[in-house]
Every structure is written in structure tokens, then in C-alpha cells.
Amino acid sequence: MKKWIILIIISILLTIGIIIRSNLSYILPWNIQKSWVNRIKSKEEILVYDFINKKLSEDNYGIYTNYLKENSDGDITKGHDVLSESEGIIMLYAVEEGDKGLFNKHYEIVKESMITKDALVAWRKNKEEKSETSATIDDFRIIKALIYGYSRWGDFKYRKTAIDISNSIYKNLIVNNRVIDFKDEYGKAKDTTICYLDLNTMKLLSEVDKKWNNVYEDSIALIKKAKISKELPLYKKVYINEKNFFEESNDVDMLLSLITILNKIEASEGKEEISIKWIKKQFDETGVLCSFYDINTGKAKTNVESTAIYSTAAMIFSELGDKTYYNKMLKKLQTFQVKDKNSEVYGSFGNAETKQVYSFDNLNALLAIQRR
Fold first, then answer.
1. Beta partners for 57?
2. Where, by residue number, does the polypeptide cross the bilayer (predicted)?
3. In Å, what is the CA distance from 136 to each residue of 85, 142, 203, 333?
């Protein structure tokens, strides 16, 4: 009889141990190397924030993808559909701003209307339905915002949601320690887009859950392989995992390369000196950073610029503490802001004539200007 009692006690203790180990990520301390400060908003920041808040979003629904009301076309999102991308960016802005009300408003939108059956975040929704497809880059961004929110305000619900989503990413979107792009109703992506590898978020997660260490190391190794050359120190776009090579392309996407560079710098994985030197040289010689460059010659393939490019470049120079080039990027960025008070889209970063104003551009501009 005593043996049975001992066995039962041992069984109970083992069960308790398993439960504790599987839930440590919810309780272990987080060492988040950030300081929270109170700021004074610039005029440009107030203008774009007011436009987003008053004309590009709707209470209890989210931020519109575009100011104009159009129907989305397949994977091309238009009009008043809401992207997880937008919700994550505004949450990052809110936590840096110390605006818990704004943060909580968008947290509730994500929590109540964008969580999929797999406990990931729907990449897109409208008032009729939400997608059952995720986007790993956007899920990581939301997790980062939630971790920062927990750090700043100590609200456990933010931490719990961050861990819940991260556990689902690990279950559904990590294959042999490799991050993949998405999961939908039909299966999983087979490829890895390099700029999706949010190293900083993975590093934060690894502090409370060691299983993320191997994912982080794999991501670092893949990013290193993706760098094109010393002569063109930008990054290839997509790695095809089943074939173990990068997708062939004659173009280099400047924005996606800048996001990758920012990911590395934010995670303290080097200062990307060669890439930064190349970016500065391009800007100083031509006065612009273009959307696409030739992978063989390193020359611009288009004269198209974008708000998002200058916003991301500004954030890179802010992270590096390079005020000179941060201000150069900010000055260039501000040329895209609509300053005509009579315009319907006054204060936004968009096209005053066509009224095409996209959330991604405006939200990234908001993050960049916030760092002033």
C-alpha cells in the first residue's frame, strides 16, 4: 500500500514539474534593455498622428490600409481592410510614447478580432471576416510590442498574449529551427523571406524560453548567407528551403535590405559598417535611395523612392547614434509629407492629388519621426 502511495506522490510531483517547466516562460524575469522616457512631439509627428487617428482608422476596428475605400484584390490589400502589420506598428509607437490607452485600444483589436484558429495573428481582416493566414514578420512585431508593453506597464495580459502567440509560431512556423513566412488554411510556406527574421524579438523570447536560441542562431546564419557581396552589401530576398538556395533575381529590394540591416543592429549583431558606408555613399552621390538596385552592377534600376525607405534608414541611423545621417533621412522623409492645409490628406505621407495614402508609409514615418 505504501509503495502505491509513494508512486502516486512521485507521479504527482513529476506532473507538477512538467507543468512548471512548460510554463516558465510566463513567469521568468525579462531583462529588457530599454529606457522609457517622456517626449515632446514635433509638429510633423502631430500632423501624421492626427491624420492616422482621425482619417485612417476607426475605433474598435483598426487602421485602414489605404485612405481611399477600395476592394482588396487577392493578396493585394487595398482600401479599408486592416493589416496586422499596421496594428503592430501602432502598438510599438504607443509603447514608446507611453500611451497605454492607445496601446490597449489596438491590443484589444488584435486579441478580439485577429487571432486565428491556430492562435497566430490574421495578416488581414475586414468587417465581414478575418483571414486564417498569418505573416510571421507581423506576428513577431506584435510580440515585440507586447513584451515592451509588459515591460513598461507591468500588465500581465500583454506578456501572456506574447507568449501564447510565440508558442504558436514555434509550433506552426518553425521547421528544423528555420522560420518560415506563413501558415494558411492549406498548409505552411516553404520559403523564408530574409527580412522576416526579427532577431531582436527572437532574442527577447530566448531569455524566457531557451528553445528560441537555436532558431536565433539559424536566423543569424541565414542572414549572413544572404548578404550579396562587399561591393553590394545589401541582402537577397528569399531563401528556398527545400532546394537550399536563394531565389534568383536581378534586383535588390532596398526597403527589405534596410529592414534586415535594422533587424541586425537592433539585436546588437554588429553595426553593419560596410552596408552603412554603401548607403551613405549612394545618398551623398545621388541625393536619393531608390527602391531597386541591379544585383550585378549595384546601380539604381529605378528612380522610384518611398517614404518607407527613408523612414527605415532614419531608424537605422537613430539606432547607430548617427544624428547627422538621421537628420538627413528625416529631412528627405519630410518632403513626402502633405503640407497643404487645404488638402483632404493634409499631414499624411501620400499623394495629395490621387489621395492614395497607405498605412505602412505613414506608420513607419511616425516611428522614424518619433525618434527625434
1. 63
2. none
3. 10, 10, 15, 28
Q: Write the burial class of residue 38 (CB in 10 Å: 0-12 exposed, 13-18 middle, 19+ buried).
A: exposed
Residues 165-219: pLDDT tens digits?
999 999 999 999 999 999 999 999 999 999 999 999 999 999 999 999 999 999 9
Whole-number Å distance between alpha carbons of 261 and 199: 11
**What letter does residue 349 receive in the DSSP assignment?**
B
C-alpha–C-alpha distance, residues 111 and 100, integer Å? 16
Angle subtended at Cα 120 by Cα 218 and Cα 143, rounded to the nearest 5 degrees: 65
Query: Residues, the chain, total?
Result: 372
How distant is the alpha carbon of residue 89 from its chain centre? 7
297: its cell numbers: 552592377
Distance CA 166, CA 32 (A): 17
CA distances from 169 to 63, 157, 367 (A): 24, 18, 25
